[in-house]
């Protein structure tokens, strides 16, 4: 009797097990079907939301870029396209001494302003992330110059360099403070000061985002091990904020190379076009000399240079992030 009941129970268990397996398999197939339907719906919604952005990117950036590249190989005068001239505009661009001089000035300015802006921005970020009561107020104050337009900033600093510095030079008897923006050297440093003052607050925000996300236990462990402020920054903080350095360097590099409005309002390229940056030189070629195709070829060369430098910088910094 007990043997028969035991056999019946075993059969029931086997039946329940088989039913459970078939149920799981059926639900699993349904689940995969639902998941596939969800993925297709999600992909459709994704592309529908992305379509306006892609359309704007295509119409505003990609199409004008391709048209501009085509115009650079012609004798386009801004109204109609004439004959195809091949590489003539590009050859003339590399022979243009003013264009090469402005390109070299832009490279020097970009290197110095990138260093100054990132050092000052990181320094400000370290200050406002300390436990001081006025940190929020300081963040606002440091960021405010970035909200002012480039032309206005240029005129403000032009007044400071010409009037204020001259007044201080008279009071202190320092001749070096007089005549700012009247020489190539002082004009160069005036642009660097302007760029650093404007961009440092913006770069500070990027560094703050990474500094506030640092693991507290790592900083405490470094202090327990006896690491001073310099060693703690060098071996703990800086490696952890390396991604912020990559982003900040990319932004400062692109903004430094394409600077125009501050250059126009502060020095206007003077004296004798010695502080003229590439963007201003291209603009003058196009609208001052009405050589549209020639200016377009310069713009294409400038675009390639900035793209190569930017991508190389990002690649090198990303590689260093992994090594750190």
Automatic annotation (TrEMBL):
Keyword Transmembrane annotated: yes
SUPFAM superfamilies recorded: MetI-like (SSF161098)
Subcellular localization, as worded in the UniProt entry: Cell membrane
PROSITE patterns in the record: ABC_TM1 (PS50928)
Ranges that cross the membrane: 46-73, 109-129, 141-168, 188-212, 233-253, 299-316
Keyword flag Ion transport: no
Topology of the protein relative to the lipid bilayer: Multi-pass membrane protein
Keyword tags: Cell membrane, Membrane, Transmembrane, Transmembrane helix, Transport
Residue ranges occupied by any ABC transmembrane type-1 domain in the UniProt entry: 103-313
Pfam families: BPD_transp_1
InterPro entries in the record: ABC_transporter_permease (IPR051393), MetI-like (IPR000515), MetI-like_sf (IPR035906)
Domain of life of the organism encoding this protein: Bacteria
Family to which this protein belongs: Belongs to the binding-protein-dependent transport system permease family.
Protein name as catalogued: Raffinose/stachyose/melibiose transport system permease protein
């Amino acid at each position: 009797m007990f043997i028969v009941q035991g056999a019946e129970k075993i059969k029931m268990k086997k039946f329940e097990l088989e039913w459970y397996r078939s149920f799981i398999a059926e639900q699993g197939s349904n689940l995969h079907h639902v998941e596939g339907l969800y993925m297709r719906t999600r992909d459709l919604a994704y592309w529908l939301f992305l379509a306006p952005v892609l359309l704007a990117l295509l119409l505003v950036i990609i199409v004008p870029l391709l048209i501009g590249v085509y115009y650079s190989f012609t004798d386009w005068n801004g109204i109609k396209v004439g004959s195809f001239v091949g590489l003539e505009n590009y050859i003339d661009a590399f022979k243009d001494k003013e264009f090469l001089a402005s390109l070299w000035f832009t490279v020097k300015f970009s290197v110095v302003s990138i260093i100054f802006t990132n050092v000052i921005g990181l320094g400000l970020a370290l200050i406002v992330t300390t436990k001081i009561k006025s940190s929020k107020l300081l963040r606002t104050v440091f960021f405010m110059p970035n909200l002012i337009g480039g032309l206005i900033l240029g005129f403000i600093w032009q007044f400071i360099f010409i009037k204020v510095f001259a007044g201080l030079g008279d009071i202190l008897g320092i001749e070096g403070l007089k005549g700012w923006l009247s020489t190539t050297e002082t004009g160069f440093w005036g642009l660097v000061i302007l760029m650093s003052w404007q961009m440092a607050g913006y770069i500070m925000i990027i560094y703050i985002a990474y500094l506030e996300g640092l693991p507290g236990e790592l900083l405490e462990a470094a202090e327990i091990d006896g690491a001073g402020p310099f060693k703690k920054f060098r071996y703990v903080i800086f490696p952890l904020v390396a991604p912020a350095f990559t982003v900040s360097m990319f932004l400062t590099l692109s903004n430094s190379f394409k600077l125009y409005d501050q250059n126009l309002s502060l020095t206007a390229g003077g004296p004798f076009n010695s502080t003229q940056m590439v963007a201003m030189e291209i603009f003058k070629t196009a609208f001052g000399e009405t050589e549209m195709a020639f200016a377009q070829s310069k713009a294409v060369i400038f675009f390639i240079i900035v793209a190569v430098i930017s991508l190389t910088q990002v690649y090198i910094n990303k590689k260093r992030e992994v090594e750190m």
